[in-house]
Amino acid sequence: MTYYKQLHPWCIIRVLPKQQRQLNPVEVAVVNDDSNIVARFRHHNDAAAYLQVLQNSTKSIKFLIIFDFQGVRSSSEIKNLN
To answer: Is the pLDDT of residue 8 over 50?
Structure first.
C-alpha cells in the first residue's frame, strides 16, 4: 500500500449492479483493487460531505464509505518500531 493510501484510509466506492458486483455486501469492506474506489480521504467527515455531493449529482448510482484498513498499522506494530 502506498504512503498516500495509508494517509487517506476513508474511501468512497461505487456499488455495482448485482450482475456486475464482484463482492457481496458483507465483504465490501475488503477492496483489493482500486477499480471501484471513487475518492480517498483522510477524515471521515470529508468523505461524508463528498458522498452527499455525489448522491445529489447522480441519483442512479449508489456509493458507500468504507475504511480501508489494509495499510493501517496496529498499535503493537508501532511500539515495535520505537
So the answer is: yes
0.90 exceeded by pTM: no
User: How far is the C-alpha of 44 from the C-alpha of 17, rounded, in Å?
Assistant: 25
Q: Could you write out the DSSP letters of every residue in 8-58?
A: --EEEEEEPPTTT--S-GGGTT---SSSSEEEEESSHHHHHHHHHHHHHH-
Provide the 3-class DSSP secondary structure of residue 59.
coil
Q: How far apart are CA 77 and CA 45, in angstroms?
A: 27
Looking at per-residue pLDDT, the higher value among 66 and 33 belongs to 66
Q: Is the dihedral of CA 5, 10, 12, 18 positive or negative?
A: positive
pLDDT per residue as tens digits for the range 37-49: 899 999 999 999 9
